[in-house]
Amino acid sequence: MKFNTKRVISGFLAALTIATSAIQPLPVFAADNGSEKPPSYESVKDLLDADEVVTAKDLEIEMGTSFDIEKDFSNIEIPDSKKVKVTFEEAMNEQNESFVTDHEDTYKAVYYVEPVSGHPIYQINRKLIVKEAVVQV
Hints:
By secondary structure, this protein is an alpha+beta fold. Helices cover 24% and strands 28% of the residues.
């Protein structure tokens, strides 16, 4: 009788192990669906240290100028670049068109800020205003 009990318990534990291994990844897949965006700065500001607060001011760009939107962080104030990682997410105009400098337009640029400390990731926004170049006479 002892032999059969041990076999039943062993079989049950093996089945339980297999079942939990198959089910465990499901919450991870559900959490990493990519559609959830970080909250705004206003939502998490009380959870951040002072040197993790990144601010962005609107930026005017002359039409036709070469501007690397993913790397040029002009008018973005980063108190300590060792404490946060700032990445460009997107820049769209009101018609949901991507950023270009070949015509006048205004774009909403979104950046994600990730504190190295593990505090919550948040997003900041600014306007990128493409204007016609001013010619001085």
